[in-house]
Amino acid sequence: MPRSLSGRSFLKLLDFSTEEIQYLLELAKDFKRMKRAGTPHKYLAGKNIVLLFEKTSTRTRCSFEVAGNDLGMGVTYLDPGSSQMGKKESLEDTAKVLGRMFDGIEYRGFDQQIVEDLAKHAGVPVWNGLTTDFHPTQMLADVLTIEEHFGHYKGLTMVFMGDARNNVANSLMVVSAKLGINFVACGPKDNMPEKKLVDTCKKIAKENGCTITLTEDVKKGTKNADVIYTDIWVSMGEPDEIWEKRIKLLSPYQVNDAVMKNANPGAIFLHCLPSFHDLETTIGVDIHKKFGLPEMEVTDKVFRSPQSKVFDEAENRMHTIKAVMYATLK
Ligand code: CP
Ligand code: NVA
């Protein structure tokens, strides 16, 4: 049992020990059982939280809102256009004001430094709901989904395909190193995670008996994989002009039948979502018109296959975010 997480911020997984991450996963399982059984758990009644979003969201916002309500808290949402932060009021002043009114602050936006600075000045726990560098709450849901499927996670191999230096890939590499999961970043060399982070993760991985591998080779990279993971090729905040370059670079790393067949027979597919796997989105249609692709980072067939656990994963965002809020606010 780790020391209490009460009063801590949740900014990146590098800040947390293996035991602390395991504790959050255990808590999430308890909350999931309670939710399923209809057992009320308004343990944080009387508290209030604010959700500060500078980028759009479906899962993360809804998870914080539902989890906050389930825990009995008041929840205020500030959308990308409706706070003064950065425009009329400094980050420091905003953090101090919000910290006077709320018991916890969620931030989704740009530089990791922003969420770190918010935490420095707010005086209350701050939770990272995605920055350009990391997406730490996502990983708790991913590992919970893996554990639910395989019964364990230690010793498994997870392969991230595509833009392996984005926030999701970075955080997956960290959580894998911390929890003893072998991690493979499979993508073009220009899209590999930064050397400094790789070196840090390799050191942590060694302590936990697992490996970190970077490869451009899809066949080698996906061999022996238990989990194949991908994300969109252009992340929020990146310019539209980059699509053409990314499509060229990342198309060889699409998750398709060949990739899933090359992985272990019982392998599962994960994706943080949202995903461009068909032509049911405006961006998907636009890309199809410009470049002729009917699907992008994952084929519709794999996305809808029994191996795909993406909706379990999406649900688990809520249970794991609830665990993070409870652990840090109780
Ligand atoms: N996976 C994820 O963070 O989804 P949203 O962008 O919808 O929050
Ligand atoms: N890499 C994606 C993740 C979305 C949940 C992005 O930052 O847009």
Quick tags:
about 325 residues, alpha/beta, five-stranded parallel sheet, four-stranded parallel sheet, 13 helices, about 45% helix, globular, binds phosphoric acid mono(formamide)ester, binds norvaline
In summary, what is this structure?
This protein is an alpha/beta fold and 330 residues long.
What does this structure look like?
It is a single chain. This protein has 330 residues and is an alpha/beta fold. The protein contains 13 helices and nine strands. It has helices at 18-37, 59-70, 91-101, 112-122, 136-150, 167-179, 195-207, 218-222, 242-250, 257-262, 282-291, 300-303, 310-329; strands at residues 48-53, 74-78, 104-108, 126-128, 157-161, 182-186, 212-215, 227-230, 268-271. It has a five-stranded parallel β-sheet. The chain has a four-stranded parallel β-sheet with strand order 2-1-3-4, with helices on both faces. Strand 3 (104-108), helix 4 (112-122) and strand 4 (126-128) form a beta-alpha-beta unit. The two termini are 16 Å apart. The mean pLDDT is 97.
> How much helix, percentage-wise, in residues?
40-55%
Radius of gyration: 19 Å
How large is the count of helical segments? 13
Which ligands are bound? phosphoric acid mono(formamide)ester, norvaline
